[in-house]
Design goal:
Length: 157
């Protein structure tokens, strides 16, 4: 009796606090294809481009366009990334010459979004609905994101 009552009280307390503090999840425009997840994002307010979402990678990367590496490095140093109504400022990008995958529409992807873009947020991938959900920031006491699950991005064909 005591154990059942105690368990019920703990469960009721947990459910009660969870119902009051349920965070609003942000739905991001995404496309799932060939075991990869692509997000349609805007970089520094420009027209939307496809980016590969890769939470297994700590850093984000941007495919270098043009021939001036210094100019590209300055542009990639700090960017505002917007996906749907979610905005993340001061995202740092490494520069790469190419990405191993193409976007869902067959065009080259603009880069890869790694964990530094997610920050201290919970990222939920719902493959059957082709949906990416992002929770509000979580106070973890550290600036490092917590990755509870991962997936593998396919290599180039």
């Amino acid at each position: 009796m005591w154990k059942t009552t105690f368990s019920g009280l703990v469960l009721a307390a947990l459910l009660g606090s969870a119902a009051q503090a349920a965070p609003a999840l942000e739905s991001l425009p995404a496309k799932f294809q060939d075991h990869a997840v692509f997000l349609k994002v805007s970089l520094n307010g420009a027209s939307p481009v496809w980016m590969l979402l890769d939470p297994n990678t700590p850093d984000s990367s941007l495919v270098q366009n043009g021939s001036d590496p210094r100019r590209a490095a300055r542009a990639a140093a700090r960017m505002m990334v917007a996906a749907g109504t979610f905005r993340q400022s001061a995202v740092f990008f490494d520069l790469v010459s190419t990405m191993p995958v193409t976007a869902p529409d067959g065009t080259p992807v603009a880069g890869r979004l790694g964990r530094n873009w997610i920050g201290n947020r919970a990222l939920i991938l719902v493959a059957r609905r082709q949906e990416v959900l992002l929770a509000p920031p979580i106070d973890t006491g550290t600036s490092d994101p917590i990755v509870a699950a991962s997936y593998t991005v396919p290599a180039a064909r």
